[in-house]
Structures are given as C-alpha cells and as structure tokens.
Design a protein that fits this description.
Elements: E1 7-12, E2 16-24, E3 31-40, E4 47-48, E5 51-52, H1 54-73
Antiparallel strand pairs: 1-2, 2-3, 4-5
C-alpha cells in the first residue's frame, strides 16, 4: 500500500465515529476506500442542554486517540 497517496477522514456523528481511509484511483477522478472503521459512540446520550458532557468528551477523546494511532501507523 503506497502511503504517499492515502487520505483519511474522521466523521464524528451522534451515534458513531467513523474513520475512512481512501486512495485515489488511477484516473484520479475517484477514490477507493481501503479502510473503513466504525465505532459506536452513542454521543447523543451525553448531551445536556445542547452541550456534550465531560463524560461524552472523554469518550470521544478515547476513540479519537485509537483512530489517531491507526493514522500514525499508516503515516497519513
């Protein structure tokens, strides 16, 4: 896998946090998904008065740290 051309996207949603890693196809008009990791976070349960609670923030950070290790290992 050529690391030079990989692109990663993290999507933080109300129920899941997703990491997708893409590589451009040969024509550079499209991308191929090479890694797709979805983690259930249930962040909507940590909302009080429209704000994420400290527990919700801690859960988010823990998941993001795990995804960051994947990104770092792939040198993205």
């Amino acid at each position: 896998m050529s690391k030079d051309y990989l692109t990663g996207v993290i999507d933080i949603g109300s129920n899941t946090i997703r990491l997708n890693i893409y590589r451009p196809k040969k024509n550079n008009d499209n991308y191929k998904t090479v890694i797709s990791k979805k983690t259930f976070a249930g962040l909507s349960a940590y909302i009080i008065d429209g704000k994420l609670t400290d527990a919700g923030i801690q859960k988010t950070v823990k998941i993001l740290n795990k995804l960051a290790r994947i990104i770092e290992d792939l040198e993205i």
